[in-house]
Amino acid sequence: xxxxxxxxxxxxxxxxxxxxxxxxxxxxxxxxxxxxxxxxxxxxxxxxxxxxxxxxxxxxxxxxxxxxxxxxxxxxxxxxxx
Length: 82
Fold this sequence. Notes:
Blueprint: E1 2-7, H1 12-28, E2 32-37, H2 40-46, E3 53-56, E4 59-63, H3 69-81
Parallel strand pairs: 1-2
Antiparallel strand pairs: 1-3, 3-4
Helix pairs in contact: 1-3
């Protein structure tokens, strides 16, 4: 089971990141929990400095950028292997 957190206050890119993550998880038929962190206090606690951000299994994979679906897939494959 992969734990995925999409981090952002709800801006356009944050929403798009969440949509891309859901699409990739569905395409990969991956068992994953996807949650969203949008509260500023929780964002700060997570260690994220710029949004949108993607946290997979507790590790910040990217922040301040909107990754392509291909990059998201690579992050998830990396998480599965480790």
